[in-house]
Model the fold of this input.
Amino acid sequence: MFLYLSLCQKASMSPSNFSKSIINWYHQYHRDLPWRNTQDPYLIWLSEIILQQTRVKQGLPYYQKFVESYPTVFEFAKADIQEVLRLWQGLGYYSRARNMHETARYISNELQGKFPDNYKQLLKLKGVGTYTAAAIASFAYGEEVAVLDGNVFRVLARYFGIATDIASSQGQKEFSALAQELLPAKQSAVYNQAMMEFGAMLCSPQKPNCMYCPLQGDCVAFAQNRVAELPVKIKKIKQKERFFNYILFINEEGEIALQHRQQKGIWQGLYEFYLLESEEPIEYEQLIGKLPIVVSESMVLEEAVQDFKHVLTHQIIQTRFWKVKILPNFEARKYFPQLSFYQIEEIKKLPKPILIHNYLDKHFF
Done:
């Protein structure tokens, strides 16, 4: 209890009273979410992976779709990866979905469908980090290990007035030790849920509801008017700007050409239109100049350029869509072997980046 006691000079509430206040608040005000009504490690794992970097409101429909499509890890393991990616469409960070599928296959085939029942073994699963392992271990098995996500960082930083950078290795160690010290015996599951819910609903990043907070009287950040300053996160993400020029090759039958994106990075395994990436925005004449002469002479611009801006965590993608009609008897596959033509109903079933889906939804679906 050394770390906690050293912080008690700032915040006067005892560890037991702190946890009781959090748990009491949770019992009165928590949201009724489906993954909170089960101890099935498969369902808990599914929810935690989906909710990584995703808000509950956005993630809930995805969770429901996955549970409906794959009620057990065995069914998930047997699923086609293209179908998994299609269900995931719109959540971003598609590597999460690929890792999920690979882990489901491992658990189904190698572990006979049984998830590891402790934190250390859960950490060995692909796509499972310290937070997810702690969540599954405590929620499914009652293991006394503290979760530490953005919500927990924020509650602890504000309540104790901790200005250590949460993105630093020192911050990770300090907050991890404190979170573990505060964990009440035999109540890890409800306490961990309560801490995350408290941070999401009451001690929120913007406009926290301090006036109704049961911890207000002992909160250092509130007393010192530093709520907006905490937690401290110095590490900044640099965003790279990229320019995507998508060409929609449309044949006489109204079919659209797509390619299966194989290269590593964003949207691996998804389907997209023919892509030319440039260092800056380009016009139609420049676009034509980048294609073989025989190709440019066999296509007709059918629709003026449409621009879209797609913002990702590490990238800003400036996108232009060029809708063109290819003339009869033009053998597109001869010059673009990676392309295949699909009917609209077929395209609906393929996994696509959300900006491709939105464009198609607006103009074709």
Remarks:
- The mean pLDDT is 90.
- The chain has two domains: 2-229, 240-363.
- The longest helix spans residues 95-110.
- Strands lie at 240-250, 256-260, 271-272, 274-278, 299-311, 315-326, 339-342.
